[in-house]
Amino acid sequence: GSLERRSCLYLRTGRACCQMVEVLLAALILVCSSVSSGSAGGYTGLPALGGIYYYQYGGAYSGFSGADGERAQQLDQSFYLLKLPIARAAMAVGGCLLVFPCVLILVGVLRVPWYFPAWLLIECTLYVVIAVCTVPALYYFLHSLLSVYNSSVCKEREQLYQSKGYQGFWCSLHGAEIAAGLLGCMAAMAYLLSAGLAVRDYRTVHEQKQKPLQL
């Protein structure tokens, strides 16, 4: 079997391929979470980006002046601070989910499961636990974001920008946040698949280790 071959061939097994998919999904979740946090504020942040953003949003926000400009800045900063803990938590989870399959790939390359078959059962248990915990984590992520978007800060911010003709400041989930949720669901399914593959490989290793005894 593949588990008896040279360690480099582990990367060609089904379990390793699934783990590499998990790495990709975790990386995308991390990116989408960082996008969700945004900058410290649209009014003060977008002109600093220059280029297409500067011209798309009307130069230095010429529609704002005096008290309106100061209020826009305050609302941007308040909105940013409301979303920041959620984004940081999502980024932390994405980082952990990125490290976990990387460690398992290294374990597989070093052929630890062949010398210690019980590791595959531990791996299966970890995958099941993570897959189950992903569901409430996604609920908390989306529910917290919706709470921020339903806040008075977001509503006032949306109305202020719309009154000046600026678009893109709606109080609703944007593409990166929706993508993070979908990627989380895909990751949970990948974890369950990896759990099944770990059980299959455990049986394979157990059978192969019993062959010399049968001879």
TrEMBL record:
InterPro entries listed in its UniProt record: Marvel (IPR008253), MARVEL_domain_protein_3 (IPR053077)
Topological category with respect to the lipid bilayer: Multi-pass membrane protein
Coiled coil: none
Main location, first listed in the record: membrane
Transmembrane residue ranges: 21-43, 86-107, 119-142, 178-199
Stretches assigned to the MARVEL domain: 10-203
Keyword Transmembrane helix: yes
Location in or out of the cell: Membrane
Keyword list, A-Z: Membrane, Transmembrane, Transmembrane helix
Entry GO terms, CC: membrane
Entry protein name: MALD3 protein
Species, as recorded: Horornis vulcanius
Gene: Marveld3
